[in-house]
Design a protein that fits this description.
The chain has 512 residues and is α+β, with helices and mostly antiparallel strands. The chain folds into four domains: 109 residues, HprK N-terminal domain-like (Udp-n-acetylmuramoylalanyl-d-glutamate--2,6- Diaminopimelate Ligase, Chain: A, domain 1, 3-Layer(aba) Sandwich), CATH 3.40.1390; 117 residues, GAF domain (Beta-Lactamase, 2-Layer Sandwich), CATH 3.30.450; 115 residues, ACT-like. Chain A, domain 2 (Alpha-Beta Plaits), CATH 3.30.70.1150; 84 residues, Arc Repressor Mutant, subunit A. 49% of the residues lie in helices and 17% in strands. Strands 11, 12, 13, 14, 15 and 16 form a six-stranded mixed sheet that branches. A five-stranded mixed sheet has the order 1-5-4-3-2. A five-stranded antiparallel sheet has the order 7-6-10-9-8, with helices on both faces. Helix 5 packs antiparallel against helix 7 and helix 14 crosses helix 15.
Length: 512
């Protein structure tokens, strides 16, 4: 950037400050014009040179002239003066007008051609451009050397942070989990928004987007990493000041280098994912040893002989949210040291996808899984805990629970159904039909709903008529009469244990 002060400080041109305005303003170019109003031909940021051939003759005209230039964004006005020119000195009226407009005004001696000043500024711009290019080339070499070493991603981040004074760089996942960073401390983000919010805002653009925001405490820049498909990681750069051109070039170079790292890592991840999917199919089929043999190809540990119990999770929903949820579950497990196997996605005719996931029976992992599913918009059924050799049973349970999930209740857990008793395990429609048909004769009697309440209390006391009557506040004989009415309606004795069990289940379903 060239400033007005730098131009006025050029040696050998004899430029003399007359009115000092904002001399730190950046100069875009130097233009010459003898027009009374040159502003239609200016873009702002120029130094305008003139000799006053068509200059105003009264003070109000000088005021309008200076004001128009200042409003257009002209950063300085240079007037050529000398005995053979229109004005031997800068007119006092112009001096007053420039001062009122806040416009820098300087004089150019007759012996200094305007072209010489223009050439000097052009040379300054060329020299600065060379300096910028050299600095960018040096940065590119530094980052490239870092990328070719061991643990290239971390070294690139450290080098990038070192090239940006006071800067910090990191790589995060699509969940805004930081996986690599340039330093141990995570700085406060300058815009007041969380990293998760910023990444969520950027994710829909995939590889096409980037984000740059500034605040009182500095700037943050986020770029997706990768070459194709959906970005799994993002580069995050935090700087204490606005990002300059050379720094922006360094960030762009880092994005390219880290994207290559991400692509190679993605290829390894895809290979491991395919191996894990094949191993999961074998494990769910009951062949755990063959599954372990396949996992050894990807240098993954086996599952046979483990004392830890496992659960199978079945994910279902629109294809992309399901795949995203499966990737996040797998990524979380890898980062936290838990174990997970993600199967291949099966596409359904309705456009939905279905994915099986085998996970360790761990409360922390299950909480994270629930959060991932809720955020993704998919649905999930979680099977019961079982030895890995019985993972197929857990899968059947997961499918059963998955069929009971809804848009409001996206995650179903087998344990919750079991806790609710046998009634909860029945298919909902079949359970309601069973309850309706069994209880219909009693409900058809006069005072049928009252009889059902009495029956529920009777069964809750395991058939103890005296205790049930006491709870209901009725005489024991009244209790016996009403139970007889129930038996007459059903055509069966309440001493039958099977009938009691059926009635209890029906009443639970009816109440639900």
């Amino acid at each position: 950037m060239i400033t007005v002060a730098q131009v006025l400080g050029l040696d050998g041109l004899g430029l003399r400050m007359v009115v000092e305005g904002d001399t730190g303003a950046p100069v875009s170019w130097v233009a010459t014009s003898e027009l009374a109003d040159p502003t239609p031909y200016l873009n702002g940021g120029e130094i305008v040179l003139f000799t006053g051939l068509n200059s105003p003759v009264d003070r109000p005209s000088w005021g309008r002239y200076a004001r128009r230039l200042a409003e257009k964004g002209v950063v300085a006005l240079g007037m050529g003066v000398g005995r053979s020119l229109s004005h031997p000195e800068v007119p006092e009226q112009l001096v007053e007008a420039a001062r009122e407009a806040g416009l820098t005004l300087f004089s150019v001696p007759e012996e200094t051609p305007f072209l010489e000043l223009i050439q000097a500024v052009a040379e300054m711009r060329a020299a600065q451009e060379r300096t910028v290019l050299e600095a960018m080339l040096t940065m590119q070499r530094t980052l490239t050397r870092a990328a070719t070493g061991a643990d290239g991603s971390t070294r690139v981040l450290e080098s990038l942070a070192g090239l940006i004074e006071g800067g910090w760089a990191a790589i995060c996942t699509a969940d805004a989990e930081i996986t690599h960073r340039s330093g141990p401390a995570v700085p406060e983000l300058p815009t007041g928004r969380s990293l998760e919010e910023l990444v969520d805002r950027l994710r829909p653009a995939r590889l096409r987007g980037s984000l740059s925001e500034s605040g009182p405490a500095g700037s943050i820049v986020i770029h997706p990493l990768g070459v194709q498909g959906v970005p799994l990681t993002y580069l995050v750069v935090v700087t204490p000041r606005p990002v300059e051109r050379v720094q922006a070039g360094a960030i762009t170079t880092a994005v390219a280098l880290l994207s290559l790292h991400a692509e190679r890592a993605g290829e390894r991840t895809l290979f491991r994912r395919r191996v894990r999917a094949g191993a999961l199919a074998l494990v769910l089929g009951g062949d755990v040893r063959s599954g372990d043999a396949l996992l050894a190809v990807a240098e993954d540990g086996g599952w046979a002989g483990s004392s830890r119990r496992v659960r199978v999770v079945r994910l279902r929903g629109d294809a992309e949210p399901v795949r995203e949820a499966a990737r996040r579950i797998e990524g979380y497990a890898d980062r936290t040291g838990h174990r997970a196997l993600v199967g291949a996605a099966a596409q359904h005719a309705a456009g939905e996808a279905d994915v099986a996931v085998l996970v360790e029976d761990d409360a922390e992992l299950l909480r994270a899984l629930r959060e991932v599913v809720e955020r993704s918009g998919a649905r999930a059924g979680v099977g019961g805990a079982a030895p890995v050799e019985a993972a197929g049973t857990s899968e059947h349970q997961a499918l059963d629970v998955l069929g009971r999930t809804t848009a409001r209740h996206r995650v179903g857990v087998w344990d919750d159904l079991v806790t609710g008793g046998f009634a909860g395990l029945l298919p909902p429609e079949a359970a309601r039909a069973f309850a309706r048909d069994l209880l219909a004769p009693v409900r058809a009697r006069e005072g049928g709903d009252q009889l059902l309440g009495l029956l529920r209390t009777f069964l809750a006391h395991n058939g103890n008529r005296r205790q049930a009557a006491a709870e209901l506040g009725i005489h024991r004989n009244t209790m016996l009469q009403r139970l007889q009415a129930v038996e007459q309606a059903l055509g069966r004795s309440l001493d039958d244990p099977q009938l009691r069990a059926d009635l209890w289940i029906a009443l639970r379903v009816h109440a639900g």
